[in-house]
Amino acid sequence: MGGPAGADASQAGAATRAGLATRLVFLVAGFGLACWAPLVPFARQRLGVDDAALGLLLLCLGIGSVVSMLGIGAVCTRFGARPAILAGGTGMALVLPVLSFAATPAAMAAALFVFGAALGALDASMNVHAVEVERLSGRPMMSGFHALFSIGGFLGAGVMTVLLAVPLSPSVCAALCSIPMLIAMAVASARLLRGPGGEAGAEPGPLLVMPRGVVWLLAFLAAVTFLVEGAMLDWGALLLTGARLVPERFGGVGYGLFAMAMTAGRLSGDRLAALWGDRALLRRGGCVSLAGFGLLLSSPWPVPALAGFVLIGLGAANMVPVLFRRAGAQRAMPVPLAVSAVTSVGYAGVLAGPAAVGGIAHAIGLPGAFAVLAALLCTVPLLAGIVAGIGRKA
Q1: In angstroms, how far is the first alpha carbon of the chain from the final one?
Q2: Cα–Cα nearest to 223, from 97, 380, 50
Q3: Close Cβ partners of 198 (under 8 Å, ≥ 6 residues apart)
Q4: Domain spans of the chain, in order of start
Q5: Which residues of 157-193 are buried (b: 16+ CB within 10 A; e: fewer)?
Q6: Is-contact 66 119, C-beta < 8 A?
Q7: CATH class name, domain 9-189
Q8: Exposed, middle or buried: residue 79 (CB in 10 Å: 0-12, 13-18, 19+)?
């Protein structure tokens, strides 16, 4: 079968295999990151540090991620996404147990930096790979990939929590969680696409890359969306309890609803993208999120306020997948460099976000800070037409 039909069948088979591998990789990234969260209290107790010192240690993870993301685009351009994916996923699995027994602040800082660097390499390269798989398949797939990251997060936190409750030691729990990660990476390895990021013959890029042209717009919108996600995690409970909408022990229910809604939205996002297109998906999602902010900030009753968390999660669910898809369509930069730049600037927003929200909240109150977030999020539906047009004129 050497004709067009045979070539189409071969391409479809490659897309199917690569799609499975990409889903596994996104699952590993979410699973591995979430496995670390239940270990944080044990790390604090083992190291004997206060909140300020713990915060500095946790910052090492974020710094490692951003540093790695800044350079991974050049690696993907030259060697393809596969080596970076395998190095990042395997690195996370191998360093996770170290986080459970590092005995000094210096050792923990180094381990967190390496863990963050592995996460950053995996995160950027898997999105580069996802862009190419989506292009190869000829249909929207990005939201489904990102949904697997969220599902991995639920699984990782749940499995680690159950193992710790057995009870097993943190080191044994971390080792047990690393095993399925390594197995998944081994299964994905043979199915990942090979070649220089889907751009054979591309010139090697610089080691560090910043956005260029329309990629700046995509990176800015990614930073805004990640900032909103981070604020829901870091400040959502305080907003609910500060307004006396829920008791302190139930403060986390808002973020839980937000996360579940975001996962559900991403599971349906590919179908909606195929039905509506990226412009309508961004506009309608932005309007739904803004309606959620309106409920959250205006309601004196807990049920509507919690419904606000659900609407924010549903509306924001598919923003980042669309932005990565457009990064794969633009022509201002090589795709691996563009995806890496959007990822790194987005995560820089995550790192700066908690402090920025805290500073604004100190000046005008936490509801005021969330109103500023809503104003920033308005840029997504307002600029949806420009975003959706990227790559279509050429």
Answers
A1: 34
A2: 380
A3: 80, 128, 131, 132, 135, 335
A4: 9-189, 214-389
A5: bebbeebbeeeeebeebbbebbebbeebbeebbebbb
A6: no
A7: mainly alpha
A8: middle
User: Does residue 57 surpass a pLDDT of 80?
Assistant: yes
Q: What is the pTM of this model?
A: 0.86
Q: At what angle do helices 278-298 and 366-377 cross, to 10 degrees?
A: 160
Ramachandran sector of residue 277 (left: φ over 0; alpha: ψ -120 to 50; beta: rest): left
Contact status, residue 215 vs residue 338, Cβ threshold 8 Å: yes
Same CATH topology for 9-189 and 214-389: the answer is yes
Say if residues 226 and 350 touch (Cβ distance below 8 Å): yes
How much is the pLDDT for 7?
53
Give dist(CA 165, CA 168) in Å, integer.
Answer: 7
Q: Which CATH class is domain 214-389?
A: mainly alpha
pLDDT, position 241: 86
Task: Respond yes or no on whether the N-terminal peptide bond of residue 41 is cis (omega within 30° of 0).
Answer: no
Cα–Cα distance measured from residue 292 to residue 315, given in angstroms and rounded to the nearest whole number: 8
Cα–Cα distances in Å, from 20 out to 27, 30, 98, 148, 339? 11, 16, 29, 11, 21
CA–CA distance, 207 with 176 (Å, rounded to integer): 35
pLDDT averaged over every residue in the chain: 88
Residue 292 pLDDT more than 80? yes
Report, as an integer, the average pLDDT of 197-218: 64
